[in-house]
Amino acid sequence: MTNTIVRRQTTQVMVGKVGIGSDYPIRVQSMTNTDTEDVEATTQQIIELVDVGSELVRITVNTEKAAESVPKIVDELLKRGYDTPVIGDFHFNGHRLVTKYPECAAALAKLRINPGNVGRGQKRDEQFSAMIEAAVKFQKPVRIGVNWGSLDQAVLARLFSENQDRAVPLSNEMIMREAMIVSALESVAYAKSLGLRDDQMILSVKVSQCQDLIAVYQRMAMQTNLPLHLGLTEAGMGTKGIVASTAALSVILQQGIGDTIRVSLTPLPGAPRTEEVMVGKDILQSLGLRLFSPKVTACPGCGRTSSDYFQRLAQDIQGYLDEVMPQWKGTYPGVESMVVAVMGCVVNGPGESKLANIGISLPGSGEAPVAPVYEDGQKTVTLKGDRIADEFIEIVKQYVERTYG
């Protein structure tokens, strides 16, 4: 797969063992929705997220008991063989928590601070300073994360006041976008004055509407070389949230902007949290920015496809690949770039199968009941009968062993 996207050059930041910045792959991040005070539940959800591909996991640190629980969670993860960076998400009382529970800050791989929720008036600088001083003391990187829904009101009021004196005032929407950037960059400058280095900072400016997100990150990318964390905040549920996140992030990523991503989906009641990680990986793989797993190409079906057999075979192949990839990743380097085609009739079946590494063209309506298999563009065998699915999976296994072993 050829990657034609040229990434913006950014500073390199180490978050635990994970490198962030333009010298590293774009990282997939997620966040727990468990009560951090519940050590076992939070530990288990972090493991679930990591197992499907999350490279950094953020947890809420909002109470004293939650702060006390953080070192226990990190220790429990290590006991179970997981050293994935755990990030602390602080709002409103973070300055008190990191001061009273320094072991919490020490255990975390990164601190996330929202300038709009760190304090008001004269207390703002004092409380922001406490957070940065803890980061400096324990040599922890910081994400300064500005959010549209919790924007620093002092910055916003100042920019609205300045806008009134313009010959041609900007729209309220433009002022909001500018306030996000100003809040982030002023916070960076203040953090640096307190001893935090460029290689210890990551920025985000999240909004919930696609065009606003694209515009604000384009502006931000022109004004700093710090790594940027991308995400459409409050993206929503189901298809709506997936489509909105994909639409917004793809535009920005295509322009070379972004060093970490999170897809902020609202899970369905009782559904696993892991969907946001899988969507994030699919976005990066679809753009050719990273490869995580072999791709299954399958047609949508039409009146020419004789049954749902090709759909079930495509599902079986995808499930099989998902199941074996954790083992294959270490045993067969490069297998994540493999393309498998499962096609339902003769219209595009042979052509797509020839273009894939390995593919099968199943018989459509009125076609001979045979399924030719192609490997690297050449027909190698024709399958027929009731065991086509099992036989094709076996052929895929043999191809992987022969090609990537």
UniProtKB/TrEMBL annotation:
Residues 10-280 form the IspG TIM-barrel domain. The gene is ispG. Binds 1 [4Fe-4S] cluster. It comes from Wohlfahrtiimonas chitiniclastica SH04. Its EC number is 1.17.7.3. It catalyses: (2E)-4-hydroxy-3-methylbut-2-enyl diphosphate + oxidized [flavodoxin] + H2O + 2 H(+) = 2-C-methyl-D-erythritol 2,4-cyclic diphosphate + reduced [flavodoxin]. Its cofactor is [4Fe-4S] cluster. This is 4-hydroxy-3-methylbut-2-en-1-yl diphosphate synthase (flavodoxin). InterPro entries: Dihydropteroate_synth-like_sf, IspG_bac, IspG_bac-typ, IspG_C, IspG_TIM, NO2/SO3_Rdtase_4Fe4S_sf.
